[in-house]
Amino acid sequence: MLIKLVCLIIGTICVVLVIIGSANGNRYSEYIRPLPEKDFPYKEFYSIGWFLSEIPIFRLRGKVAENLKKSAKLVWANDYSDFYAATAWAQFLTAATVTVCFGCVLTALFPAGMEIIPVGFIVLAIAAEWNLIISKMKEQVEKRTVSSEIEFPNMVFKLSLLINSGMILRDAWFQVANGKEGALYDLMRIGCEDMTNGYSDAEAIEKFGVLSDSNEIKKFASSLIQGMEKGNSDLGSFLLSQTSELLAHKRQVALQAGEKAAGKLIIPVGITFAGILLIIMAATMQGMTF
After folding, report:
1. Half-sphere exposure at residue 1, Cβ-oriented, CA atoms within 13 angstroms
2. Which residue from 89, 123, 160, 161 has the fewest beta carbons nearer than 10 Å?
3. 173 near 228, Cβ under 8 Å?
């Protein structure tokens, strides 16, 4: 009975917050409208999260804020990392609040002594939402980094061929960037845009290394910038020497990616296992009741 009473109070508070947040939708429309639907589904409901994030207890802070801003800066490659971090937090708060509302209603409908079942599902659902939303940008960066490192030796080889054939670095960079699709080439095209918009070649290449979030690519970008100062002939020989080393590194990256992918399966398997245990517990408790 106590659990039902607590859930009723929490559920009522959450419903009130959802109503107030939804009613203030126009207040946050300028934040929500420009968000891409692909990356932020159901964005019209984010006003709930934006409203909650202004309440001190729900404000984005600490390590979570730091990690979100870091990931946002790498994913969106611009100066709006604070905005996208706050948006991800609002997305999570919206999902968690709606989940608690529905979960509390279910708890009230369950027979006495079995309220722990929907409460467990609420906890599991919020944990899944945290993993899906808060960790999403970080996982995007990690996935892009692995994909970039795998394609990296091929990119350096193409770049070395063009430069050794007499092409200047900027022209070779543009040709390689627009010659293929993929995460690494997307980052190269960002560099192309920067060069076109007034950045120096060195600044654009340095930013390319930072956005890759790969120590190997950052090291290459730094060495490439140093090679630019020595001239095109030294740059060509440097790129050729890098190619053979990077092909060996590519095999190691592929093996590490496979190991990480296997490790990530632990979380969904654990959630599924916990769900099965709750179902078994529910069936057992029903049997004991009757």
Report:
1. 0
2. 123
3. no
- Tokens standing for residue 81: 């990392």
User: Sign of the CA dihedral 195, 201, 203, 205?
Assistant: positive
Dist CA 146 CA 70 (whole Å): 18
In sign, the C-alpha dihedral spanning 98, 93, 76, 184 is negative
Q: Give which of 146, 105, 139 is closest to 122, Cα–Cα.
A: 105
> What does each C-alpha distance from 134 to 31, 95, 285 come to in angstroms?
18, 11, 35
The type of residue at 70 is K
Q: How far apart are alpha carbons 52 and 126 in whole angstroms?
A: 16
Residues 6+ apart with CB under 8 A from 222: 206, 209
Q: How confident is the model at residue 285, as a pLDDT? A: 59
Assigned token pair, 275: 């769900």
Q: Which amino acid is at 73?
A: K
Q: Are the C-beta atoms of residues 77 and 242 closer than 8 Å to each other?
A: no
Alpha carbon distance 234, 236 (integer Å): 5
DSSP 43: G
**DSSP structure class, residue 179:** S
Q: What totals of helices (H) and strands (E) does the chain contain, helices first?
A: 13, 0
Residue 231, pLDDT > 70, answer: no
